[in-house]
Amino acid sequence: MEKGKAAATPVKNQTPLLEARGISKRFLHVQALDNVDFRVDPGEVVALVGDNGAGKSTLMKTLCGAYHCDAGAIFFDGQPVTIRSPHDAMALGIAVVYQDLALVNHRDVATNVFLGREPMRGPTVDKGRMVRESRQVLEKLKIKIPSVYTLVGLLSGGQRQAVAIARAVQQGGRLVFMDEPTAALGVQEQAKVLRLIEDLKAHGTAVVVVSHNLQHVFHVADRIVVMRGGRNAGERVKAEATAAEIVGLIVGAPSAMPLGAV
Amino acid sequence: MAQPTTTAEEVVREGTPETGPGRQRLRRVFQVREFGILAAAIGLFVALSIARPATFFTEDNILRIAMQISLLTILATGMTFLFIAGEIDLSIGAMYGLLALTVSKMLFDWQWSPWLAMPAAIAAGAGIGFVNGFLTTRFRIPSFIVTLGMLGILRGIALVWIRTPPIGRSPQFDQVTAGRLFGEVPMQIFWMLAVVLVASFVLSRTKFGYHVYATGDNEQAARNAGINTPRVKLLCFVIVGALTGLAASILIGWVHGVSRGYGPGYELDVIAAVVIGGTNLFGGIGSVFGTFLGAAITGMITTGLVLLGAQQDSEPIAKGAVIILAVLLDVTVRRRQGL
Prior knowledge:
Order of helices and strands of chain A: HEEEHEEHEHEEHHEHEHEEH
Largest sheet of chain A: 6 strands, mixed
Oligomer: heterodimer
Distance between the termini of chain A: 9 Å
CATH architecture of the largest domain in chain A: 3-Layer(aba) Sandwich
Number of domains of chain A: 2
Number of helices of chain B: 14
Number of strands of chain B: 2
Radius of gyration of chain A: 18 Å
CATH architecture of chain B: Orthogonal Bundle
Structural class of chain B: mainly alpha
Order of helices and strands of chain B: HHHHHHHEEHHHHHHH
Largest interface: A-B, 37 and 36 residues
């Protein structure tokens, strides 16, 4: 496992932005995560792939404070950190774009961009600032939405995903987790979301994409981490990987064993 | 999902030069909801005035309706917070009756200072609301079950505890709760305006208000965004209780005592006011101003039925039907908007 990791690390001396060591998490009788190591470098796009139940969502939720791990250590910027809640993660600069549970439909775009972090002016929420800054962030990411006053429930799936991503960026996220960002979107909208991920990277934001779609993964990721049975089954730098190899790691086929777990 | 018509409309509206966020939003809100309710309230008022000019359209009657509406609005304002947060309190009527009895007990049996009785009633209400909220959020029991149980408990306490309801007068207390401001404006109306203004401000401008909407609209999303949704809901239950304590105090200052069976059943009026006012009982949508209009309509229906010669016992039929109609209308309108 150590050997596989070293081989997959392009720049060895760089301090990882986020590093998780030996993460374990158990739900009653299910060992969801078993001694998982995971690393994200600054400005890197990492794809987290694996079959259903492989532990990729659990790992994501642990790293962004939704779950507490039973064992393991997390380092951010090389410093040991404890992430007990989404608040802790947010404070570190870790933002999450959830698949479909992220937005409040009957509120407008500006309110959604600042959900849970409304800026204040005296005793009241500073709506003017929310409007200005949401416009700025939408512009920066070249997201086209009629107006920041539009109710989110009236937007298309791709626009909603874009709003969720804009929120992550507005939070000042240095690391953005995305859970299946292209699922349930039309082809054109998928392309827009992939372009957004590239834009984020261009702005120096690291991105972790949890996805089933290998085509998309190969399109945007710098490095691909495969989960299987709650373990880190191996990782590959995209340039050196083939789709067949990744599929092999996902299903645990013998051809992929040399670097895989067991 | 998004209906093309509505979206296009939205785009056109947004495409016009910015007329300021407040006005734009105001325009949209009025187009959709409150405006229709306001029209209905005015229509009902005009219709009743024409039908019964000698009994309905008199200063005395309008003032009496206004005072009734005041109490209903205060109760329904608390419920509006709770509905928007996605919960309900069915015990509000029983709580109202029990707290009214408690206030009369404090004033007339125990001879408490009037300055103590009202805060005590508000605190007691907040306490009951806290219990409702705690049981709902801590153990994740649906609030309609918790508060249905609480309805029974509170009604039972009222019946067992108070054999002969105290009746009396406490001039100071009456003056504060139900006297005339500047010798003209009934205090009930003053209290209602104060509650409506403060509650509107809290709901539409403060962080807590934003979190109430988010919690009721999509609790998972709110939680993911770091909002402490159980605490938001708990606070809404406490607000319902505190405002019920306030309304109960005003009631005693006004009518000087209630029978021990008073209260239960009143939740129907409160829910009618909130729902007619356009607040969604599934959470996320609503306003205090809408609730005020809903209370006005409910109050006029009550008085109107009496004036039109309907049996008093048939009143719940009208209110029940109106609740269902209001929800039907609301759901239909929202579907057409694509939300």
